[in-house]
Amino acid sequence: MTVLKPITKIFFFILLCGALHPTFAQTDTNTRASNITVFESPNDSADLATDFWTEISEEDERWLFGEYESFDIETTHYPMVDFSNKKDTTFITLLSGDERYVHPCDCPVTSRFGVRRYRFHYGIDTKLRTGDPVYSVFDGVVRIARRSTTYGFFVVVRHSNGLETYYAHLSRLLVVPEQEVKAGELIGLGGNTGRSRGSHLHFEIRYLGAPLNPEDLIDFETGKLWNPILELNTHHFRHLSEVAKLKQAAFHTVRSGETLSSIARRYGTSVNAICRLNGIKSTSVIRPGQRLRVR
Ligand SMILES: [Zn+2]
Q: What is the 113 CA–ligand 1 centroid distance (Å)?
């Protein structure tokens, strides 16, 4: 039994104060794991998921509370609750007292949060050289510092307000789980580990497991917070409609001899529509084995 750190207690208190707003309905708890689908991204291949919990029973909610309270140092992602129908606003204090925000690295954005071809990219990618310092953006406690096949060496820092920040594809870990860190504290070095093409930092912000667009909180041009208080509402989960569309998506693996026209005919769609979905031109060469989104 892990002794609760003060920060964990604060976190639990926030949860009890109603920060969690799930939709109540009966859900088979055994389907929990299968409700989360983890994919790899075609570009940086960090863990990406397209499925959210849309129905959470009271039992599930208790389980969620327990999960957060347990401070699990192994589980990469908590279940992503669907907050798209969130009716109220949760005021999240990002900085209190003498706390400060420190940008994770001195690094320009190279890929944004959002739909990335046929998958959803739940983080921000920034250019970073192997060995460059990566800092914790807020005060917090390290929940995870280990290696995964997709994230490579990565660190998850839990903050006292329900947020967690993720730092992936590192070359070196400089912290351990349950270590308290301050904003600006060195937590690792930039790298190209996991499923990554080229050295970069994949940075995520999650609220009770649900990804937020880091650019809703942070101005990446100046490396500063937009506001020390985040007024979290349904607007911050507007991407979930895109995620829902992706769930309806259909894909086709190109076979030898096929053309965009023949594939379009087969699925009752147009070459233009396929090109739009895949970010290619009607003159683009398609190769056997290539995966195309057709719907
Ligand atoms: Zn990324």
A: 8
Residue 249's pLDDT is 73
Supply 96's token pair: 């209190």
Tell me, in angstroms, the distance from the centre of ligand 1 to residue 169's CA. Answer: 9
In the reported structure, the alpha carbon of residue 47 is separated from the centroid of ligand 1 by a whole-number distance in angstroms of 9
CA 42 vs. chain centroid, Å, equals 15
Please identify which residue in the block is written with the tokens 């890929």: 111
pLDDT, averaged in runs of 10, over the chain (295 residues): 42 39 27 30 39 53 61 80 80 93 93 80 92 97 93 94 93 97 98 90 91 95 95 89 77 90 89 89 90 85
Spacing, Cα 51 to ligand 1 middle (Å): 18
Q: Are 151 and 47 in contact (CB under 8 A)?
A: yes
Domains by residue range for the chain, with CATH:
1-249 (2.70.70.10), 251-293 (3.10.350.10)
